[in-house]
Amino acid sequence: MPLVQTRGAASAQGFGEFAQVTAVNYIEDVFSTYLYTGTGASQTITNNINTTTYGGLTWIKGRSGATGHRLTDTTRGVTKSLESNSTAAETTETTGLTAFGTTGFTIGADADYNTSAATYVSWTFREQPKFFDIVTYTGTGANRTIAHSLGSVPGCIMVKRTDTTGAWQVYHRSLANTQYIVLNSTAAVATGATRWNSTTPTSTVFSLGTDATVNASGGTYVAYIYAHDAGGFGLTGTDNVISCGSWSEGANVAINLGYEPQFVLTKNSTSAAFAGDWQIADTMRGFTVDKSGNTQALYANLAQQETTATGNVRITSTGFITNNNATGGDKMIYIAIRRGPMKVPTDATKVFAPVTRTGTNAAATVAAGFTPDLYNAFQTSGGDKFFLDRLRGRGVSLVSNSNIGETTSSNTTLDLVSFDMNGVTLGPNGNISINTNAIPYVNYFYKRAPQFFDEVCYSGTGTAMTVAHNLAAVPEFIIVKRRSGTETWPCYTATTGPTNRLQLYLSSAAQVRSTAWNDTAPTSSVFTVGTEPNVSGQTYVAYLFATCPGVSKVGSYTGNGTTQTINCGFTGGARFVLIKRTDAIGDWYTYDTARGMTVLTDPYLLLNDTAAEVATLGSVTTVSTGFALNSTILAAINVSAATYIFLAIA
Asked: What SS3 class is residue 214?
């Protein structure tokens, strides 16, 4: 049997009685976008990326100030910095990035990394076959090859001379092997056969010519190597997590990556005049489904602070759509990285949190304990039930108790200021009441995760169609809302089936409505809409839930008129329960442990109503396996022979 190369977690292969063991890789283990605020003193950033064991690159940029991009990697060593926006040689920043770790990195007080109260973004790339590799070498001045450990043919290679000044030279698979483009410049692609020796890289080596920017005799260099659609990730080891491609510039060109991205770097390779900058968009800072000003742009070739822009691209569930409206046909190149997490959650506290708070009408942060994607703000004293999410952008809200379309905050310092690494930042109330002074609230935070929760935005066509999703399971509960105008909140559940429709903002029973789901059940990759939640030219959002063992349960029960326990397969009880009667009129009842789910305190709110919470003494209580119902306390949730659907989260 031939030798098997291992990298990172060891792998082994055998025949006959010998089992095959393969390391399972996920994007959240090898890439992180992490936002932080400077302190002016040494601080450790915990992004859960292990660069100490595996090696990697951390790229840091100030968001609130005009600071240089700082690139530090484990191969060249801590404090050794390069700037993507400069031709400068490597510098030693003694108070820059001072340590790599198994769960992140440490920074000193250098202004480009850690000015007090300034905001920053870090992108960390861990070395991993079929994702990213780092190579350092000394130039020879002669044509040669450089070995790499990417384990696949590179999609992009960025080379920088480190011992003296020199422009960043970039190879990209969408360009000819006689061409190069410069990372620190807006310049268009240029021809130079002496960069890559007119040779396309292979899965083991890349080639260099004699040009001093890549191979001067005695010069020292670093190469950052990015894979392209190489598989290697997910449970089957076949999922792609990084793509290097191009498109011909035009209006609303759809790029199908086969996954939803979290990071996209774009560059016009044909012209410096239009979109000549290397624009970086990521979902942590603000990279949405719309052309709106929710995209927060940084540029690899510029030191300028973050700007609010329409951006070059907007996210879809399978890739991105370009915003360019010119029709010149310029070639745009990109590097895209898949959104995570890819792991199925096992701990519900990492993907859902109920939090009670009192409004301040002033700047405030609300902690979730994880990075949220959906944020609910419900006044428990009565008011609208607000839905805000990262995908649609900060300050863009819907209310579940009304059929009206989206409301957008008039000012970025008002309402929901930002989605953060550990919750949200709120400002004073502007257009929506999510932080009214002295008003009590319950907030629900959800993180998108396989088999638990996903979100999809789409545009209507007016004819039945499928909508791709990334739940990685068959959805059992789907909530849809038209964003761009007035329309109901149609809901699909596995219990009521694809021929029926519930409505989130109404108490009505399930109705036969073939125009909702086109009489077609969803699959693990798509759901179907008929003509109802699908008006041509209108925009929609869909929230999808499934049963995730030990984390969530979507199910149904038949009322018995007394008491009963609903076994959800949990071990620590339900922290959240949503209940709706389906065979007759019934409200959407919401319970949570933050407000209380005991026989002593057990208030409920109605998603379909502005009414204040109603106190009960145990109508729905948490038990170890799920939740219990008591119709003697509240008959509506357990009427004899009535049918109900529920969503419970542990």
From this structure: helix
Core vs surface per residue 498-518: b (16+ CB within 10 A) or e: bbbbbbbbbbebbeebbebbb
Distance CA 68, CA 79 (A): 15
Whether cis (ω within 30° of 0) applies to the bond prior to 450 is no
Q: Which residues face 190 on adjacent strands?
A: 180
Closest CA relative to residue 613, chosen from 442, 460, 462? 442
Q: Give burial (CB, 10 Å; 0-12/13-18/19+) of 492.
A: buried
pLDDT in tens, 577-635: 999 999 999 999 999 999 999 999 999 999 999 999 999 999 999 999 999 999 999 99
C-alpha span between 313 and 306 (Å, rounded): 17
- Nearest-angstrom CA–CA distance, 637 and 645: 10
Instruction: Give percent above pLDDT 90 in the chain.
Output: 89
Q: Which of 4-8, 274-278, 388-392, 536-540 has the lowest mean pLDDT?
A: 4-8
* Entry field: residues in the chain: 650
The DSSP secondary-structure symbol of 479 reads E
**What does the alpha-carbon distance between residue 202 and residue 285 come to, in Å, rounded to a whole number?**
35
What's the rounded Cα separation, in Å, for the pair 531 and 515?
A: 5
Residue 311 pLDDT class (50, 70, 90 cuts): low
To the nearest whole number, what is the mean pLDDT of the chain?
Answer: 93
Cα–Cα distance measured from residue 385 to residue 83, given in angstroms and rounded to the nearest whole number: 46
